[in-house]
Amino acid sequence: MIITTTIIATTITTTTITTIITTTITAAITTIITITTSITTTTTTIITISTNINTTTADTTTADTPTPSPATITTTTLSLQESMRTIIDKAGRMAKRQRP
Description:
Low-confidence stretches: 1-13, 24-29, 42-47, 49-60
Strand content: under 5%
Distance between the termini: 48 Å
Radius of gyration: 17 Å
Order of helices and strands: HHH
Structural class: mainly alpha
Helix content: over 70%
Mean pLDDT: 59
Number of domains: 1
């Protein structure tokens, strides 16, 4: 349950930052917006998997090992966060270049 809460909180924060930067940048930067959308979709999928694991664990009386493991979900989430930071950094630099 803690992993799910952390991922959801991170996703909301990342989406908020992405929205602010996307609003600031002109519509000409289509590539960055497309990449951002793909990462957000992947993150949403991870949240769904995490929720399913928690539901399965709650319904099962034996301690089964969930697949994918919580460690894998955490690693993937951290990787996605790093990718988002890179995109946000590049988007910020491109926005600075477009200012008059």
